[in-house]
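User: Hey, quick favor. My workstation is busy. Could you predict this chain's structure for me?
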Amino acid sequence: MDLTTAQTHDPDGRPRARALGIPLPGTPGPLNAITDVPGVAVGMTTLVEGEGALVVGSGPVRTGVTAILPRGKDGVGVPCAAGWYSLNGNGEMTGTTWIDESGALAMPVAITNTHSVGAVHDGVIAWTFRNHPRVGVQWMLPVVAETWDGYLNDINGRHVRPAHAEAALDAAVAGPVSNGSVGGGTGMNCYSFKGGTGTSSRVVRHGTRDYTVGVLLQANFGDRAELAVAGVPLGAELADDNPLGEGSWFARDLDGAAAARGAGAAGVEGAGSVIVVVATDAPLLPGQCKALARRVPLGLARTGTAGGHFSGDIFLAFSTANEGALRSEIPLAAPTDDDYDTVQFVPWGHIDPFFTAVVECVEEAVLNALVVNDDMVGRDGNRSPALPHDRVVDALRRHGRLDA
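Assistant: No problem, here it is.
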């Protein structure tokens, strides 16, 4: 796959948002993925098994794990400057209190479904101790985040095991990243279309140097009515074929009745959450990483969401620069006169282009999660339709956002 194709298509050849002609600002990196940031590696375990009625513990299974290694497999334990931000706290991201305390991230990041955080946490610890025993004998506080896939997946079946997290970490590579129904995003929905994993990147010039900002997100949020693409509100035009918005499945889940009771979509359709991980090789302070994380909602808003109460919207940003700084290892000797950390960072007055890159990456990553997808049927016959490419393109043409 040539570089241009890598920016516009998934590794399996399916088109991304750019391949549909959707106008997107900024210059992507060669892979248009978080792995354009040097050293960052991504691995996934995708679990798709069974079909039919929900029988807890026996499927059907539509879930998985996505793993991100900020400095690759060999760099676990080497801190990155980091910061995080919660737009809405109806969700989970472990390890954040230590990030607040130390300003650093030194462990892998994993994303899965809401009820599998514990299993994935155990798996990350086991993998780290197996591969980095020196790190493992100290305390380990990995970052594990989640979104809810219970519409399509037997979420209470405990199908994600620690070994699946280990497999995702073992599979992590610094190369092309798949979008859509893969990894932790396998069973997710976005704007009541099939959602899941999305990624994108931007190149930022600072002086004579080029840096990269990359994003990987797990999209499981938004009411259909909110959806916007390239500034065009499309929710009303694409309001049909919305099984998630009908609400009958939710009434059935609440009382076990086979017949729908007309619960409607209120408080249901926009639930689910979105996790966003931002990476860059630009030298940043921990507070600047937090500032990048705070810009994530601006990119989400470009796709239409207002950030619902039942959606846990939690974001993490890290910088791979300043390797060797921000250490917090247990000391084995008294400090010497040279025992100091030194960091370089982009001046605050020049940070705006990095903010812009985050916003652009997040918008495109959400669209990639939607575009690189197919219909999915899960438990109890619950169906999530894929975003209809032809109708989106037609609408953008009629609104003047694409050439006729």
